[in-house]
Design a protein that fits this description.
Strand content: under 5%
Radius of gyration: 20 Å
CATH architecture: Up-down Bundle
Helix content: over 70%
CATH class: Mainly Alpha
CATH topology: Amino acid/polyamine transporter I
Low-confidence stretches: none
Order of helices and strands: HHHHHHHHHHHHHHHHHHH
């Protein structure tokens, strides 16, 4: 019979999952293309920003873990209870806009991979969409998590791609030592990278996921500790993948053709082929994109369904059957179809990726504002951030929100 300590360790391992799943989804199709453009246009300069985003990403998602485990309520439900229905609908609209944009980019990425290997769009979009829909309708949070993480792990193929690209050490050091530029193009791409890392649907997903998963027999503080470790590991993994994408494009396309237009996975693969070879370019980037897009589409659809169901007061657990939570499952399926069908019908949507990430950056002030307010209002005093931890989180969140505001002004000025 296992000892008490071993049983506790097994239970803590069982808590691992929501943080890793949401972080794998964070490196979605739009993020991949945004990171690739960063490397192609500015070499290694934006590597530093990817590393700086690790603690920011962790601090943001850690708040969602505490809110979920301590209150037992999802993000939308908490906003409705603490601030009222109107504010809850504002959060739901923000979530809806972010989810639609994200799902369009995920299926556009899958269409791009299909085009690389000669698959018709109906297959490259239709098959993944149906697989995800079936997985969702089968229910059970644990099943969804295991399959999602297994598919998302394909993203790790971006790392050997960066190694094969053989980045120049001197050029890398030069880029790392000069991580900032003040020109509009650089700052807009920086904002897109921030928007590609902290997205509204991540907050809704992880808070709902830790509730659906439960504490696995652990006390609150033990469950929090396990979830924090899981979230930290996920934050490091997803940003290392982003760094790998920046590095591989900086070492290849950026070195030979800086400023190249990379609006789709096909553009990236074509640019990498002279350096990595056709097989490596298609295999590593193609399968990496499949993992990124499929796990992200799954997470985004569930996040949207959780958030909207919470605001509407509907049942919203994957551990309920579709018959008991018809509205929740219906929203998830509708979201997937709303993302897949436009890309199937209008090929020009493939170029949306960076625009969607900039939009996410514009939405950050609303998302982080609600999150920080809930952390102070919905949690008991002993579970709130204190001292240096609180100060650091507020400063970093403020910087991220300021970048979002900058993006709004740049967008407005660009259209006038």
């Amino acid at each position: 019979m296992p000892s008490a300590g071993r049983r506790r360790a097994i239970r803590m391992m069982a808590m691992m999952g929501p943080g890793l799943m949401v972080m794998l989804a964070d490196t979605d199709a739009g993020s991949v293309i945004t990171a690739a453009q960063s490397g192609a246009r500015y070499g290694y300069q934006l590597v530093v920003s990817q590393l700086v985003l690790i603690p920011i990403l962790y601090l943001v998602q850690e708040m969602t873990v505490r809110l979920g485990l301590v209150t037992g309520e999802g993000h939308g439900a908490l906003i409705r209870r603490m601030f009222g229905t109107r504010w809850a609908w504002l959060s739901a609209v923000t979530l809806f806009v972010a989810c639609v944009g994200a799902l369009l980019t995920e299926f556009a990425g899958l269409a791009g991979v299909g085009a690389l290997v000669g698959l018709p769009r109906a297959v490259s979009i239709g098959v993944p969409a149906m697989v995800i829909i079936v997985l969702v309708l089968l229910g059970r949070y644990r099943r969804v998590e295991v399959v999602g993480i297994a598919i998302g792990a394909l993203e790790l193929l971006f790392i050997p791609a960066a190694i094969i690209a053989r980045p120049n050490a001197q050029q890398m050091l030069q880029g790392l030592s000069h991580p900032m530029q003040l020109d509009t193009g650089y700052l807009t791409l920086l904002a897109a990278n921030v928007g590609a890392v902290i997205m509204p649907w991540m907050v809704f997903y992880q808070q709902g996921a830790v509730i659906d998963k439960g504490r696995q027999g652990l006390g609150l503080r033990q469950a929090l500790r396990a979830s924090r470790v899981n979230t930290a590991i996920g934050a490091v993994v997803t940003q290392l993948v982003m760094v790998a994408i920046v590095v591989v494009t900086a070492a290849t396309i950026g070195a030979r053709d800086p400023g190249a237009s990379l609006n789709s996975i096909g553009d990236i693969a074509a640019g990498l082929t002279p350096f990595l070879g056709r097989t490596n370019a298609v295999l590593l980037f193609g399968l990496g994109m499949v993992g990124a897009a499929v796990v992200a589409a799954l997470v985004v659809a569930l996040a949207g369904a959780w958030g909207m169901s919470e605001v509407l007061g509907w049942r919203h657990s994957l551990n309920d059957s579709p018959r008991r939570a018809m509205g929740f499952y219906g929203l998830a399926v509708a979201g997937l179809l709303a993302g897949a069908l436009p890309v199937l019908l209008w090929p020009d949507l493939i170029g949306l990726s960076v625009d969607v990430e900039v939009m996410n950056s514009m939405l950050l002030p609303i998302v982080l504002g609600f999150l920080l307010a809930l952390e102070r209002k919905a949690l008991p005093p002993e579970m709130r951030m204190q001292g240096a931890w609180r100060l650091t989180t507020y400063i970093l969140s403020g910087l991220v929100m300021a970048l979002g505001v900058y993006t709004v002004f740049q967008t407005l000025l660009g259209t006038t």
